[in-house]
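Same chain as my last thread, 104 residues:
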Amino acid sequence: MADVDPDLGDWLATSPEVDWEPALDEVTDRIRAAAESIAASHAVTGEFAASIHTDVDHGSPSHRDRLVYSDHPAAAAIEWGHVAEDGRRVPGLHVFARAADSVT
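reply #2:
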């Protein structure tokens, strides 16, 4: 059986010899497009779908995480659900989880 260097993952993630940027950008764009599509199928106004964006988090010089997010004021309630004024539970749409699952 072959031995795998336990530091291989760290090397791949941080090596200047491996350019992950194009692949990460592509997957991020696919997740955003899927999230916009899912959100648009559940809304009349399109406000939530229009609030979905991507960004790059430059938190570390060795890596840049990709973000797909919504800046809609009700984003959390739409994603995870909420309790309506009449007391009934409104289930979340899980837009971002479904979008990520659809492209992986």
